[in-house]
Amino acid sequence: MKRIESVKNERIKAWKKLHSKKGRDQTGRFLIEGEHLVEEAWKSDWKVETVLTTADDASLFPGECIGVSEAVMKELSETKSPQGIVAVCQKKQWHTPERLKGRFVLLDRVQDPGNVGTIIRTALAADAAGVVLGSGCADLFNAKVIRATQGALFHLPVYMGDLVTWIEALKESGIPVYGTSLQDATPHDQFHSQEQFALLLGNEGEGVQSHLLDAATENLFIRQNRKAESLNVSVAAGILLFALKS
Amino acid sequence: MKRIESVKNERIKAWKKLHSKKGRDQTGRFLIEGEHLVEEAWKSDWKVETVLTTADDASLFPGECIGVSEAVMKELSETKSPQGIVAVCQKKQWHTPERLKGRFVLLDRVQDPGNVGTIIRTALAADAAGVVLGSGCADLFNAKVIRATQGALFHLPVYMGDLVTWIEALKESGIPVYGTSLQDATPHDQFHSQEQFALLLGNEGEGVQSHLLDAATENLFIRQNRKAESLNVSVAAGILLFALKS
């Protein structure tokens, strides 16, 4: 196994740039951290280019594997307590399928990386066909998003797209699009379960933009205690996905 | 309005100690931050002792209000971008009611502060009668827990207690206790909606301890895609609370 001991190594410096969206966009690569995520990526059809580890042996990994010092690991890690393994992966771009089918989750400006990641994780669990990130969402390849997905991003298409275009395409395919809104909306428990639908969720503070709600087939809300002002958007996503699908 | 300009002021130094659990436990006080939380506390029956603000005027607040410098605010704040208002509150201890009634959420060693806070927020929205934190949970008065509750902790009893004792008391009151487990459990969608129940959720990595699952009335799980390993615990709490109650 090759080794890199110095944080000044050119490859290490190049990989460190993947901490920023700019670096990821320019190279089409991103980092993942921790044994669990590396394993999930590796089991999937995503391309894992290089594994970097502080362990003595990582011979099980079929691709390039490099032993690194603790100092190098600290440099590449984006967590307080590095887990001793990081991998460089190639981004994958999902193209909108010709024929839309199944359940989708559309996100309008969901900014918190933990929310975006958790919603992707929940969408996979709920057998969704895909998640669509509209503009203004946290970057899919942000370390916190990836961590919150718990690897789900390797098993479910996540599209970046214009939400108006998506809403129109879904409706044309006969898939109802349900916006979420506290106004002019129907309680979600009045909907029957269905095989196909798209759920449109919005920004943590502002919700879904009104022109998107107008484009939706219908808008719904979750009845709740009056003292509660709202639900966390990833919790709402879970409640709605599982209620509408079952 | 009084003013404190120096971070070396004795009261500021004392309040700063509320950042730690030890400091909060010793004094029975805790800090909240941001206009929204201060307002929620103030509207509730919790005791807000002192409000500290960088604003020139805070005359609307009826209690002690102190103007502070940016440097003092930075010292008291636990966020990267201080919001200019912090308040010192008195802890409130909830005593187990004589007669248990309604819906409860029991947490076994849920460690992530964001999860504990989000579950309290969701429990309020789902009209729960209370949340019970067993030992090993994140401290209720931790700043991240409070932030994630979005103020719900001021509107819903949150008990600290022994979960075995709680499970027995709930069962004696005729309230079924549903553990969550991936083994020996029934799919949650096979349960009818009910007015009263308790939901038992566990640690992010390990789930609910087996002696607690054994004590539960019945255990349930959420059917999910096989590629998904699990759901985030606060998402699971939301799905189950809203599915079982409606």
TrEMBL record, chains A, B:
Stored SUPFAM superfamilies: alpha/beta knot, L30e-like
Every RNA 2-O ribose methyltransferase substrate binding domain range: 31-95
Domain of life where this protein originates: Bacteria
This protein's GO CC annotations: cytoplasm
Keywords: Methyltransferase, Transferase
Family annotation (Gene3D superfamilies): 3.30.1330.30, 3.40.1280.10
InterPro entries with a match to the protein in the record: Alpha/beta_knot_MTases, MRM3-like_sub_bind, Ribosomal_eL30-like_sf, rRNA_Methyltransferase, SpoU_MeTrfase, SpoU_subst-bd, tRNA_m1G_MTases_N
GO terms under biological process: methylation; RNA processing
Family to which this protein belongs: Belongs to the class IV-like SAM-binding methyltransferase superfamily. RNA methyltransferase TrmH family.
Protein name as it appears in the record: RNA methyltransferase
